[in-house]
Amino acid sequence: MHLINKTFDEIEVGMTAEFRRLVTPDDLYVFANVSGNYNPMHLPKLDGDGDGNPESVAPGMYVASMISAVLGTSLPGPGTVYKKQTLDFIDRVHAGEELICQVTVTDKNADGTVGFSTEIRRAEDGVTVLKGTALVQAPVNRFDRDDVDVPRLVVERHRHFDALVARARPLPDLPTAVVCPEEPKSLGGALLAYREGIIIPILIGDPEKIVQAAAELGQSLDGIEVLPAEHHNAGAVACQLVHEGRASAVMKGHLHTDELLRPMLDKQTGLRIGKRFTHVFVMDVPGMPEPVMVTDAAINIAPDLQTKVDIVQNAIDLAISIGQETPRVGVLSAVETVNPAIPSSIDGALLSKMAERGQITGGLVDGPLAMDNAVDIGAARTKGLKGDVAGHANILVVPDIDAGNMLAKQLAFISHAEGAGLVLGARVPVILNSRADSSMSRLASCAVAALHHARMNGIKPEVLV
């Protein structure tokens, strides 16, 4: 950032400067953390607005801070010291509104102070929301630098998952066979999705353990069906419910993934439909403009090319279900050029060409791409990569389960992402969370499953908006 100030000698009565800013929900979270003002009226999540609905009211002192921004960076600029300020709060400001802050020099005093009239108005209608005066000690030394920078802030909230849950609520509640929800976390996620109107759980497992888990949560199971089943047979019961039309999704509870999937892979009584089962993590990464998918991180250990075709196609279909009109698939490797010694680079090139020839449909596929030039446009341009995927990928196809698991957990534990897990390629969506996942992850997984089920069963996109 390039900053130039106005010294006391350069300032004249009548000089003006202004600053424009769009108020966002993230601004309100930052202000709350910095100021300690946790008034629920100001916080989008607490007032029921996760996406900047005008009911999110900006605190008055947050709005007033724009005056400081003009005085401190523009007129007079760096070196300015506040002496006095008066404020008259006239109207409320909401998230989503653009504000214009203007300061005008009214006095220039012999002691080196400068007086200003200050005003903040809404850009859309010109209505004044705040006015007042300010008295500052003007700088006497020149400041002219173009290397002024401050650390970037990323607000750790999961607005993409909030939006997915909001889109899923109007859909019919999804009958879901929950397999072995015999401890509080796995049961709590299913009950949360039930309360949010996303699923209708059918609980399969040891009734005593399920009731005990509910008691630990302090929640009732009234109106919820509980089907007794031995631990080793609970997955088969879930498959039977699907075949009977009683369940339209399956959700993992407190059991190992292979125990859940083994009965689904049975050729006679399972849920096969001719595709490979593949896993997708839908990741809500703070700071990213949209959800990012990672596949396959949980099922296919060392997928061959044909398996990767199913991995890519399943991920594209899911991305469309959750509202991404043209998914952008980056097939990851260690390099962005084809190297015969690196099999993942060859697979990336082949998958890209297969998409061009219509063997993979519904999205754009490019590869091989290294991680940096898959998600960062600057890195992509540095390497001379062109097209709509490089730098903008929202589906990341990994070479093998090691890479996928590491990437997903890095996003979760270092980048503070939440992940929704789903198995695709079966007759119904299979909600596959880790036993350590948060309630938010489990709720989002149910929402993603509901949206995918709706699209696969012909509900028109406009119903999901």
How would the blueprint of this fold be written?
Blueprint: E1 3-4, E2 16-22, H1 25-35, E3 57-58, H2 60-73, E4 81-89, E5 93-94, E6 98-108, E7 113-122, E8 128-137, E9 144-145, H3 159-168, E10 174-179, H4 184-195, E11 199-205, H5 207-217, E12 225-228, H6 234-243, E13 249-252, H7 257-261, E14 278-284, E15 292-295, H8 305-321, E16 328-332, H9 343-356, E17 364-369, H10 371-375, H11 377-382, E18 395-397, H12 401-413, E19 418-424, E20 430-431, H13 439-456
Parallel strand pairs: 10-11, 10-13, 11-12, 13-20, 15-18, 16-17, 16-18
Antiparallel strand pairs: 1-9, 2-6, 3-5, 4-8, 6-7, 7-8, 14-15, 14-19, 19-20
Structure, described:
With 465 residues, this protein is α/β, with parallel strands linked by helices. It is built from 13 helices and 20 strands. The chain has helices at residues 25-35, 60-73, 159-168, 184-195, 207-217, 234-243, 257-261, 305-321, 343-356, 371-375, 377-382, 401-413, 439-456; strands at 3-4, 16-22, 57-58, 81-89, 93-94, 98-108, 113-122, 128-137, 144-145, 174-179, 199-205, 225-228, 249-252, 278-284, 292-295, 328-332, 364-369, 395-397, 418-424, 430-431. The strands form 4 sheets. Strands 12-11-10-13-20-19-14-15-18-16-17 form an 11-stranded mixed sheet, with helices on both faces. A hairpin with a 7-residue loop joins strand 14 and strand 15 (292-295). The radius of gyration is 27 Å and the shape is elongated. The two termini are 40 Å apart. The relative contact order is 0.11. The model is unreliable at 47-54 and 461-465 (pLDDT under 50).
